[in-house]
Amino acid sequence: MYKAKVNITLRKSILDPKGKAAHHALQNLGLKNVKDVRIGKFIEMNIDADSQNEARELAETACTQLLANEVMEDFQVEIEE
Amino acid sequence: MSKKIGVIVFPGSNCDHDAYHAMKHVMNADTTFLWHKDKEIGDLDLVIVPGGFSYGDYLRSGAIARFSPIMEAVQDYVKKGFPVLGICNGFQILLEAGLLPGAMLHNEKLRFVCKNVNIRVENNRSLFTSGMKEGTVLNVPVSHGEGNYFIDDEGLSDLKEHEQIAFRYCDANGNVTQEANFNGSVDSIAGIINKQGNVLGMMPHPERAMEPLLGSSDGIPFFESIFNSLQLA
Question: Which of A14, A17, A21 sits opposite B150 (nearest CB)?
Fold first, then answer.
């Protein structure tokens, strides 16, 4: 069994209003060194696969087919045993 | 002859009855509901994918609804050249299903917006808009949190080249201004059609603007335009 950890964020070229609002609030808190905030989604999946590569392929299929919308989002997959 | 209209019902649809009422009682069309589990569309002249929060908007608006059995039937129906109209969440579902290009982001100011807005007919060379003059301003309600239409530059040029932009947000005089673009959509886009011209997606709700008592009846010329095209087909 493998664990897939998926991070989904808005594509870099797209303005992230939630991130911007959070950034603004952090500035007001006095955390002036926080220069940029991007807010995304984190998804964990337990995957039954024979190898790490197979698990990765499956997780990437899940992302491209459903979990992420590549018109506006990027995703990163990490696989753990 | 009376037109046959189908309105799809997903778990979480909430404008299905508005669309049904608009079609059946205002436009006097023979209207039926289609259930999300149905596998066939049958003999219909137009299918409406209504607004609401199908599947609770989980993951992304429209992302789950796209996998309903009825959406496979809609794909076939579109391939055969029949017309499909997606309103609000229906538009989001059509985007997720790949029947229209682009995607929906959260409104730029992050607020859910529920009010009447003005939209301008940008192009009347489609079966949906052919009965209206270009530049016609319609006053119709919007009600969405994720209606900030996004498409990349390449996609936008493609939309323009193929005259796929049907409606833009504008002021009461028909000027496309930054203030009128309340949700931050690329190029103030409120509605687009596909290249084949038989699928229209729009965020505003013409089906909720059918009777003066409810604030506007500007939805009527829009649906009359569609019905006239169906008559000719």
Answer: A14
